[in-house]
Write a structure and sequence with these properties.
The protein is of the alpha/beta class and 252 residues long. The chain has seven helices and ten strands. A six-stranded mixed sheet has the order 6-7-8-3-9-10, with helices on both faces. Strands 2-1-4-5 form a four-stranded antiparallel sheet, with helices on one face. The chain has a domain of 157 residues: Rossmann fold, CATH 3.40.50.300.
Length: 252
């Protein structure tokens, strides 16, 4: 299997994420980012989250990852209510169950590709030798083993995003959360990333991906559309179509 040595086995079935009544407002100026979001993501499912700028997509992703707190509502990640946890317990849960991929990679520029991925495994609790072995295994699976000692600045955009995805998988996460992962890539890099997400999904990885691109969303099992801080529609990816542009705002 493609991820046999690096994937967490999804042996319990059920939901990876359950969201109920999620609300979030930012002050100064006041922006009602989320207005009562309900969402379920099953284990092994690939969900694309779409909507116009300012609709709350990225805010929702940050709350799911435990990077911010909701004003109201609940998030259940891998069977644990995150809103009931203190900061330290939430950080431990995030390190164990969440992989994060961003649009602009956020790699440590003075570390090699191997060191970037191994660092994430170390933070997740792996010992040094295990972290290095896991990082090599991931880079090899992504076709980047020959780039393991290269600094990010010397890699192409698609290669940097593959390193970022490898880093997100270093803790063998229950769910991979990706915020516009193809937004900074050219067409070749986007094709590489889409192929990778498809292979991950085929091996059972749960993925929730924020995107503006109908082409990217079409790779998912299901498309969830948001507008004005609410989920307004959810259907099969084959029916995906861009929403009309909405008002821009702080919540994206």
């Amino acid at each position: 299997m493609f991820w046999n040595s690096v994937r967490r086995v999804t042996d319990g079935g059920g939901a990876a994420l359950v969201v109920r009544g999620l609300r979030k407002t930012f002050p100064s100026p006041e922006v009602r980012a989320l207005r009562g979001v309900d969402l379920d993501v099953a284990r092994g499912e690939f969900v694309a989250l779409m909507g116009p700028s300012g609709c709350g997509k990225s805010t929702l992703l940050h709350l799911l990852a435990g990077l911010d707190r909701a004003d109201e509502g609940s998030v259940t990640l891998a069977g644990t209510r995150t809103d009931d946890l203190g900061a330290a317990a939430l950080a431990r849960l995030r390190r164990r169950h969440v992989g994060l991929v961003f649009q602009f990679f956020h790699l440590v520029e003075h570390l090699s590709a191997l060191e970037n991925v191994a660092l994430a495994a170390l933070v997740a609790g792996a010992r040094s030798a295990e972290a290095t072995a896991r990082a090599r295994d991931l880079l090899d699976s992504l076709g980047l083993l020959d780039k393991q000692h290269i600094l990010p600045a010397a890699l192409s955009g698609g290669q940097r995003q593959r390193v970022a995805i490898a880093r997100a998988l270093a803790n063998r996460p229950t769910v991979l959360l990706a915020d516009e992962p193809t937004g900074a890539l050219d067409s070749e890099g986007q094709a590489e990333a889409l192929d990778l997400f498809g292979r991950l999904h085929a091996e059972g990885q749960t993925i929730l991906l924020v995107t503006h691109s109908p082409e990217v969303a079409a790779a998912a099992d299901r498309v969830v559309r948001m507008r004005d801080g609410r989920v307004v529609d959810a259907d099969r990816a084959a029916q995906a179509a861009p929403l009309a542009a909405g008002p821009a705002g702080r919540a994206s």
